[in-house]
Design brief:
By secondary structure, this protein is an alpha/beta fold. It has helices spanning about 15-30, 55, 65-75, 90-105, 125-135, 155-160, 165-190, and strands spanning about 1-5, 35-40, 75-85, 90, 115-120, 150. It binds flavin mononucleotide.
Length: about 200
C-alpha cells in the first residue's frame, strides 16, 4: 500500500514539509509505503479550461500535474500539504488539484485523503475547508485526526516546537493506515467499491 504526500509549498524544506514528515512517520510505523512529491517552485499554469483532457486522457500542459496523475493511478491514498497564504491554500496546490482532478478524477475515487496546513497564525480552517472539497466531490473518504489538521510556524524549527500540531499530524498517519487496511480487507473479502450514478444538470435544463 502506498500513500503519496504532496508538498504544495514553494519551500521544499519549510514548515509544510515538517508536518508531512510527521504523517509519514506514522504511516511507516504501520508498514505503509510513501512517496513525497514536491511540486516545485517554478511558475505553473492554471487550468486552461480547454477540455482537451477529455480526448487525451491527460492535461495538455505537460508538467508536474501529469507526473502526479501518473503516480496517483497506482497510489492507495493521498495527503495534500499547503502553507496558508492570505487565508487560502497556496495557488500552486490549487492549480495542481484543479488540473489533476479535472483531467484524472477517476484515479482518486474511493482512495482516502487528508489535507494538512501550515500557517504562522491564522487562515488554517478556511484553507482546510477548500482542500477537503476536492475529496468530497470525488468519492474520497476523508481521513480525520484528533484536532485541526494544521501546524503553526513561520520557520520549520518553530513547527518542530508545535507538539500538539505534530501529534495531530501523527494521528492522521495512524488513522489513514487503519482506513487503508480496512479497505484492503474489504476488497479481499468481496466488498466492491460502490457504483456511483452520474447525472449532470444546470439551471437551464
Ligand atoms: C504570501 C504569503 C502569505 C501568507 N499568509 C498567511 C496567512 O494568511 N496566515 C498565516 O498564518 N500565515 C501566512 N503566511 C505564512 C505561512 O503560511 C507560514 O509561514 C507557513 O508555515 C509557511 O509554510 P512553508 O514553510 O511550508 O512554506 C503567509 C506567507 C506568505 C509567503
Amino acid at each position: 500500500m502506498k500513500v503519496i504526500l504532496v508538498n504544495g509549498s514553494s519551500r521544499k524544506n519549510g514548515c509544510t514539509s515538517v508536518a508531512l514528515h510527521e504523517v509519514e512517520r506514522a504511516l511507516h510505523e504501520e508498514g505503509i509505503d510513501t512517496e513525497t512529491m514536491f511540486i516545485g517552485n517554478a511558475p505553473m499554469s492554471d487550468c486552461l479550461a480547454c477540455r482537451k483532457c477529455r480526448e487525451l486522457g491527460r492535461c495538455v500542459l505537460d508538467d508536474a500535474v501529469n507526473e502526479f496523475v501518473e503516480k496517483a493511478k497506482t497510489a492507495d491514498g493521498f495527503v495534500f500539504g499547503s502553507p496558508v497564504y492570505y487565508a487560502h491554500p497556496s495557488a500552486r496546490i490549487l492549480t495542481l488539484l484543479d488540473r489533476a482532478f479535472y483531467s484524472g478524477g477517476q484515479y482518486f475515487a474511493f482512495k482516502p485523503a487528508a489535507a494538512v496546513l501550515s500557517a504562522r497564525r491564522a487562515g488554517t480552517t478556511a484553507s482546510f475547508d477548500v482542500l477537503n472539497k476536492y475529496f468530497t466531490i470525488c468519492s474520497m473518504p476523508v481521513v480525520s485526526s484528533t484536532y485541526w489538521n494544521h501546524v503553526y510556524g513561520a520557520q520549520p524549527e518553530e513547527v518542530a516546537e508545535d507538539k500538539e500540531g505534530l501529534m495531530t499530524m501523527y494521528n492522521i498517519g495512524k488513522n489513514m493506515a487503519w482506513l487503508l487496511k480496512c479497505i484492503a480487507l474489504g476488497r479481499e473479502n468481496g466488498v466492491p467499491v460502490p457504483h456511483n450514478e452520474k447525472v449532470l444538470t444546470n439551471f437551464t435544463r
